[in-house]
Amino acid sequence: MSKRVAYLGPAGTFTEQATLKYAADAQLLPFASITAVAAAVGAEVAEEGVVPIENSLQGSVTETLDLLIHGPPIFIRHELALPIEHYLMGKPGVEVEKVQVIYSHPQALAQCRSFLERCFPKAQMVAALSTTGAVEQMQQSPTPAAAIAPLRAAELYGAEVLARHIQDNPNNVTRFVVLGHSDHNPTGGDKTSICFSFAEDRPGLLYAVMGEFARRNINLTKVESRPTRQVLGEYIFLVDLEGHREDTTVRDALEQVRGMTSMFKVLGSYPRMRTNPHPKG
Amino acid sequence: MSKRVAYLGPAGTFTEQATLKYAADAQLLPFASITAVAAAVGAEVAEEGVVPIENSLQGSVTETLDLLIHGPPIFIRHELALPIEHYLMGKPGVEVEKVQVIYSHPQALAQCRSFLERCFPKAQMVAALSTTGAVEQMQQSPTPAAAIAPLRAAELYGAEVLARHIQDNPNNVTRFVVLGHSDHNPTGGDKTSICFSFAEDRPGLLYAVMGEFARRNINLTKVESRPTRQVLGEYIFLVDLEGHREDTTVRDALEQVRGMTSMFKVLGSYPRMRTNPHPKG
Fold it and tell me: What interhelical angle do B205-214 and A205-214 show, nearest 10?
């Protein structure tokens, strides 16, 4: 039996595309929310779950971060990145110059604003709850309409692609993580995600934690903070670092950090993808 | 003539409440977005603008952070906090036990989920674009309805309060900032917000920056990262620190940091509010 992989659905979204890229042969199970994907993994409805964690324009997906911090024990075991490419699509045979209404998720409409102002200055923009919902609304529209959605939605719904890669900023990439009951074995090119907080608000505590990594030459690839949900101004820090939690130096550093913090959690070690396709000089 | 203060509207929202708390005698001008508030200040339609920057449960308001990072020159000159208290309201004389539909913004509905499940297990929840929009929809509803909104909305719309403080988590506080053409003079109890990034992804750069503050005993009250919007995995750091940019030690530290970073901006120095009303032992 093929592996069951839960993902943030519905079919036709960028998360489905990422899940197909990760595990094309798996049995894909769509869920309505990030929390539901994690619950499906927790209840063993699926062996793994795929959720977005970060976008190059919008930043972190806070629902995923808060789930990793506050949710039931679940681990990151993979990461992968997907370029976010928006397509304009219509019913087969629609005449582009007659399009009066354009449906999409507000975020997709915002990401294609220049294209829309240039090419469809008179069309009405209508918000939909998801990009696939936009395709459905487009198909039911009595007036000539189009929808902005991923290419996969055009395939699934039999829509005709009218324009491709219409997003204003070409640097639009989303990073996804694969969640499971355990993290990944060491591969030699790994990354580890941790989160921690402090019982007291004393100057220099975060600096001292970062020093444990710096003096072992462990590179931090991400430092982020989220609210504790207890008191405004108190934070939980999320740090991504290079190396596997079983590497001797990383293990030593994590042991030190555990002793310096009031809450400490290893969210997982997993193979590190190349995040920078266009490295600077 | 009284001071004109722009705010994220419409009237009846928490940002209006915060603006009234900040400047009760000012002429309040509502704007439809955070970007529009900043533009109003930039164009001198208003002397100051009030926008939310952080919530104790949801975290940072990323639109405000990105505006401060990427937007036109504008400074933080004040901060203030407001407890977020949700009220259930209906048309005057409505019978609570007959309420069939409850309108609100999805975030407000989510923050009152336990109350709604306990007290209105059979009512239908309907999403509105804003809490004041919810009050309008409630007033036009042919079936007995209620709306979840701030107390101020009940006053403005003549609605009757049916239940108070119905949010599930009592630690729900939003921090607002006042934006202007200049920041605040030193008061002796100040805070400074900065942002910066690095041209190269070299281990220890952020640690070195934090060291400049640590060895001068300057407390960092917040460390946060946002995407550069150029390449996935490259970040702009936002740091809040205690002290005014004109204090000798802070000025020295900022000069050092400016030399270590490729982008560096002082977002403003302003009087520090007490963020922790329930200090730990």
Answer: 140
